[in-house]
Amino acid sequence: MNQRIFISSVQREFAKERRALAEMIRKDMLLGTFFDVFLFEEMAAQNRSAKSVYLDEVRNSDIYLGLFGCEYGFEDAEGVSPTEREYDLATECGKYRLAFVKRTAAHNRMPKERTLIAKVEREVTRMSFSSLAMLKKMVYEALFRYLQDRDVVNVRPFDGSYSLGVKLEDLDPERIANFVRMVRVAGKVTFAPGISTTEILSRLGAFDAGTGKIANAAALLFAKNPALFRPSWELKCLQLWGTTFEKPFPSYHIYHGTVFEQIDQALDFVMSRVDHWVGARDAAKSAQAPARSEFPIEAVREAIVNAVCHRDYTDDGSVQVMLFRDRLEVLNPGTLPRGWTAANLLQTHDSKPHNGILATAMQWAGYVEKSGYGTEDIVRKCKAWGLRVPEYHPSAVDFRLVLWRKEVKEPCDSTQGGGVAGGRGVESSVSMGVESDEKKPVKSRVLGSTRRLIPTSLKGVESGRGVALSLREQILLLIAEKPQGSTEVARSFGFRRVYGNLARRITTLLEDQLIEQTLPDKPNSRLQKYRITRKGRQVAKLLAKNHAAIPTQKKGAS
After folding, report:
1. Please, what's the b/e burial string for 111-143 (b: 16 or more CB within 10 A of its CB; e: otherwise)?
2. How far apart are alpha carbons 261 and 225 in whole angstroms?
3. 94's torsion region: left (phi>0), alpha (psi -120 to 50) or beta?
């Protein structure tokens, strides 16, 4: 509903100004959208007294706009003019009051008008004008400020505005305390012991001490339930078996919570579903075996942080993290700064975050190193990892980042150790997280079988090289044959028991409801097995559709 403005003045003295202001407000594209104007002289004839009409209109209006000049106006039996009665009633009803006084010498004003202006000046901040053009400019600015203060028109970034009406009681003390701990560990800024919530918000720029208002960013960072403010504040994560959208999705999760929690959950989603390599430990050089993930974790984190910090939070869309067979895509609602192209992101550039408070909080908490270098770091780290150069795809409505996975090739024989030979999803005996019955791993029934699945498109290639199934996919297909216990799964890979990466892959299959326990009420039973679900069966069929089984060539074969 539009806000109603009651223009009050001596009609005869300000007839021209009243009409001009009403016309300006009604015809202006912005003001006309949010305001209606009442002029007494435009009222049709009624069987009511003029006094009751104009006082009722004051009560029904949202804004009182008073013009004061030289004349006091007609006085009623009590010696009070309509203009003064309108002002007094607006004050009594708590209306938003705007007062504009025409400049003139004091002796030109009627005594009662001087007294009325003095009363107005004691109660509100009035503006003075000397011409119609000046008055129109002042009224426009005052009404625009009115819209700004109520976040109807917002020139501040979303995270810095107060449109959500966040209260201190909406914020979670434990989440704030956790943020303080992260800041102290990161060491980029110093918080005094016992720092208050309002002090933290003030330093972030999310608290106006003068008005007591709390910026929207506080809800995103620390709210007990951020989704209560905007249901669209969520992050969607999908895994897809192929290179295009094709159902069923093997994994689809929607994460809520604060922006920190969404970033952590999305990062865990990706890194738990890509491959990891662990090599043989050199006891002479290190106590730890060399380890490597398919993606540099810093690049994935930076990509997700950028999407969360730079998204348009006024849009009902959400950040999406999509793991395809050949790439990782991170998409967020929002556009680049005006005049920017993807080329700007591939070189050092000024930091222009859409949500500066969120970006500051991320930097203080150690989620990013420094502003303005994130997109460059992603490119540099992926190139150093041996991956293709990431791609940035801005559009008029959203922004998409693509991180390419390694080109998929057939894995080496896992019995030879040494980790992955370029294939996706095939890990060394150490990285799979299983222990061997012997000092040297025995041949895996899955990896070392006489038949291996490769893409249909590569069927018949002389060398038999193709896309290797990931460990997660191999486990799913194994359980699809028949229900399997943990020991059976481990022995299918030639090992004694399950732990580490193999255990994590089984956990993600359970979380994604691709497999289920046969004895869910007795999770630790020795009779416990895993069986494929209806959804898992659909995914297994999709895998079979995209791959064809062909014999694995023996060593030395041409």
Report:
1. ebbbebbeebeeebeeeebeeeeebbeebbebb
2. 12
3. left
| Residue spans of beta strands (DSSP E) within 116-170 | 127-129
In angstroms, the CA 34 to CA 232 distance is 26
Where the chain has pLDDT below 70, the residues are: 154-155, 278-290, 336-352, 370-373, 407-468, 544-558
> Three-class SS of residue 321?
strand
Of the candidates 265, 224, 259, which has an alpha carbon nearest to the alpha carbon of residue 360? 259
Task: List residues bridging with 276 in a β-sheet.
Answer: 293
Tell me the DSSP string of 385-441.
Answer: TTPPPPEEEE-SSEEEEEEEPPPP-PPPPGGG-SS-SS-TT---TTTTTEE-SSSSP
Q: What is the DSSP letter of 525?
A: -
Which residue's entry shows tokens 């002090």?
199
Q: What are phi and psi of 255, to 5 degrees?
A: -105, 135
Contact 332, 307 (CB under 8 A): yes
Which of 405, 406, 431, 407 is CA-nearest to residue 417?
A: 431
Give the DSSP letter of residue 462: T
Please count the other Cβ atoms lying within 10 Å of the Cβ belonging to residue 442: 15
Q: Where are the beta strands (DSSP E) in 177-297?
A: 207-208, 213-214, 235-239, 251-255, 276-278, 291-293
What is the C-alpha to C-alpha distance for residues 101 and 120, in angstroms, rounded to an integer?
10
**How far apart are alpha carbons 406 and 419 in whole angstroms?**
15
CB 435 within 8 A of CB 499: yes
Detail the DSSP E strand segments found in 294-375: 319-323, 327-333
Specify which residues 548 forms β-bridges with. Answer: 454
Query: pLDDT tens for residues 457-480?
Result: 333 333 333 445 777 888 888 888
Among 544, 530, 450, CA closest to 490: 530
List Cβ<8 Å contacts ≥24 apart for 450-454: 450/551, 450/552, 451/549, 451/550, 451/551, 451/552, 452/410, 452/549, 452/550, 452/552, 453/477, 453/543, 453/547, 453/548, 453/549, 454/410, 454/547, 454/548, 454/550
d(CA 188, CA 178): 16
- The answer to whether 430 and 289 are in contact (CB under 8 A) is yes
Q: What tens digit of pLDDT does each residue of 355-409 get?
A: 889 999 999 999 887 665 678 888 889 999 999 999 988 887 788 899 999 865 4
